[in-house]
Amino acid sequence: MEKQPILRVENLKTYFYTEDGVVKAVDGVTFDLYEGETLGIVGESGSGKSVTSLSIMRLLDEKGKIVDGKIIFKGKNLLELSEAEMRKIRGNEIAMIFQEPMVALNPVYTIGDQIMEAIMLHQNVGESKAREIAIDLLRKVGIPEPEKRVDQYPHQLSGGMRQRAMIAMALSCRPSILIADEPTTALDVTIQAQILDLMKELQKEYGMALIMITHDMGVIAEMADRVVVMYAGRVVEYGEVHEIFKKPRHPYTYGLLSSIPRLDVEQEKLKSIPGTVPDPLSFPSGCKFHPRCEFAQERCKNEEPELVEVEPGHFSRCFFWEKLKELEVK
């Protein structure tokens, strides 16, 4: 019997209605997430990664609207649930870590109060038991002296500590899915490595599925089993990590991989992708990537390619994906 995904996102379209026009931030995104796996979502700023995660959580601001698609979690379409039903899932079964803990943590409440609130809300325990659980969680995420830290405010903790506190809060209800949106961006490299190791350990211990959102292909290489590459609100490539790193089948993925510094080969100069991410209010016609693509031809300017399966489980949105065979990343 075929394994069923714990989460299936189907043809998700999230648009923002602004004074200047409609921004198609997420435009027909589809992917599956299986129990216990790590799915990476990667792309430059403005590619639609974070809006995808906020859509899953149904945490869009008033200008944002999910106009089409399904988000199936354990057989239920989250887009059909009432706000009250969604609140039972949000933070309890699906939790999220944001990239800037100083914004996500409330500065006027202690770290302990904020973790305890989630525990008391979803786990039906009293204050002293919730405090005990909160201290235990802080210890688990590697915060020294948790009995003292539990009564401190966010500003009294370093950036790395705040990020650990956010992870503790997200794990307080043992969610089935943890969404981590750029969880290490604001941290220095050594702390970044510690946080990623911690997340791997906790994922193993709790058996949860993880969606890792990042612009960093290095983080994807270290953390993910499968990867969704996004560009201009679309999925442009999707497949297993080792397959995509070895055999990218979209020029955008190839560009992202070519711009990573390598220690195992001598590089004269790092490649970069020319141009910038297009303005979401005026995406180019045809393939959204064609103005920046070295393989673009006339057809790419006029027609948008479909996402096609180029090898089993490996999908690409490119007419000329076969040309990349000659350029496989060494």
> Which runs of at least 5 residues are low in confidence (pLDDT < 50)?
none
| Beta fraction | 15-25%
How would you characterize the largest beta sheet?
A: 8 strands, mixed
Extended strand count: 12
Distance between the termini: 37 Å
Count the helices. How many? 12
Q: What is the average of the pLDDT values? A: 90
Supply Rg. 21 Å
Gross geometry: globular
Which sequence of strands runs across the widest sheet? Answer: 6-7-8-3-9-10-12-11
Multimeric status of the protein? single chain
SSE-based structural type: alpha/beta
- Report the helical percentage: 25-40%
Helices and strands, in N-to-C order?
Answer: EEEHEEHEHHHHHEHEHEEHHHEE
Break the fold down into its secondary structure elements and pairings.
Blueprint: E1 7-18, E2 21-33, E3 38-42, H1 49-57, E4 64-73, E5 76-77, H2 83-89, E6 94-97, H3 101-104, H4 111-123, H5 127-140, H6 146-149, H7 159-171, E7 177-181, H8 189-206, E8 209-214, H9 217-223, E9 226-231, E10 234-240, H10 241-246, H11 251-258, H12 298-302, E11 308-311, E12 314-316
Parallel strand pairs: 3-8, 3-9, 6-7, 7-8
Antiparallel strand pairs: 1-2, 1-4, 4-5, 9-10, 10-12, 11-12
Describe the structure.
This protein is 33% helix and 23% strand. The protein has 330 residues and is of the alpha/beta class. The protein has an 8-stranded mixed sheet, with helices on both faces. A 4-stranded antiparallel sheet has the order 2-1-4-5. The protein is globular.
